[in-house]
Amino acid sequence: MTPFQSLYAQPGDPYMPYPANAPRVDDLMSLPPQTVAELPVELLAILQREIDERLKHDKAVKARLDGALSLRYASRAAEERQAAGKDTGTVRFDDGDFTIVADLPKRIAWDQSQLASLAKRIRDGGEDPDEYIDTSFKVSERKYTAWPEYLRQDFEPARTVKPGALKIELVSQEVGQ
Questions:
Q1: Fewest CB atoms within 10 Å of the CB: 19, 44, 59, 80?
Q2: Does one domain contain both 98 and 126?
Q3: Residue 173 class from Cβ within 10 Å (0-12 exposed, 13-18 middle, 19+ buried)?
């Protein structure tokens, strides 16, 4: 009787050397999540590390390409925006057989203390500032946890805690790994 062979051979399996048959990062998308979840933890750790390294590398490559595209097209895009009489926004121009779409988005920042003063002036003038200004309140969690209990109790009904995304990192317990 031949010994049982799992889909993924273990180290020392004479029929299939490990990890020659182990899935690679590029194989993961074709495998069901349950199959991936059943892989040996050592292999999951290797895959996690390889994916993290790829992401880091790809991020650096993208930054390099984006920098090169900026070097090549930023001044032309600025000229096109100036000719169109705008400081921000999207402009289009041609380079050979390609249309270059250069977008420079607006980033608006409002001075909160000045807005508070303006809202008070509007209210003092007999108008409703909510007709003009969207108001939001934030409480720093660090500050909240440092408050005395009596103050936290007053704010508790206004506070909702939602869990973030679960992140799992596989860390080897072996020295030097």
A1: 59
A2: no
A3: exposed
